[in-house]
Amino acid sequence: MSLPTYSGVSYILWGRSSCPQKSKLIYNGQIAGKHHSSFGGGTNYLCLPNNPEYDRKASDGLHTALRATHYRTFNAKSNVHRATCAACETDKRVNHIMIPAKTSCPTSEWTLEYKGFIMSMAEYNTGGVDDFLDNYHATSYICVDSNPESLTSKPYDHNYGSLLYTTHVACSGTSGLHNCPPYKPTTALSCVVCSK
User: Cβ–Cβ contacts within 10 Å for residue 161, how many?
Assistant: First the structure.
C-alpha cells in the first residue's frame, strides 16, 4: 500500500505554546482538567484553544467543570504555574509515539519532537510528613516539555484547579517495579515524543 502524496501526524506538545521548528502550529492554548479533589469529570487532560467557539444549541444545565491546570516546578512548593500547550503537525510522517523513561528516540529512523518529564495529578497532603500522595482520582500521564512555559509571568501559590506533578516509580513492596535498578524511585521519570 502506498502512502498518499501528503502525509503528516499531529500531537500535543504539553507545556509549550509553540511547536518545534520542524513542526507546524495547529493551535495553542491552555491545559485543562478536573479539579484535583473532584470525583466527576474526565480522566484525561485537554489542550483548550485560546479562541473557543460555541454551538448556539449549547445547554447551560447540569455539567462538569474544566479547571485551569497548574504544574509545580521541580521541588518548589511555592512555584506553581498555569500550564500551556500546543497542537503540532509534522509533515511527511505518519506515526508518533510517547515513550516514557527515555531521553532519546529508539532509532535514527525516528525524529525527536520533544523531550520532557512524565506528569500527572497528585493529591496534596497538608497534614503529614510526605508532601505528595498518589491521587484517588485517576488522570492521564502526559509528557510535559522539559522547559515548560507558563501562561502568566506570575507564579501561583495555591492548589486550586487541576495540578501536574512529576512522576516517580515505586520500587519497594510487592507492587514495586521488578527492575530497580536501573529504575530509580527518587528521580523524575523522563519521556520523549518521537515521529517517523
Answer: 21
pLDDT confidence of residue 75: 45
| 128 domain residue, yes or no | yes
Residue 39 lies in a domain: yes
Among the ranges given (18-22, 49-53, 113-117, 122-126), the one the predictor scored with the smallest mean pLDDT: 122-126
Q: Flag whether 23 is in a domain.
A: yes
Write the pLDDT tens digit of every residue in 14-59.
999 999 988 999 999 998 887 665 666 667 889 999 888 877 776 6
Residues spanned by the domain of 108: 8-51+64-195
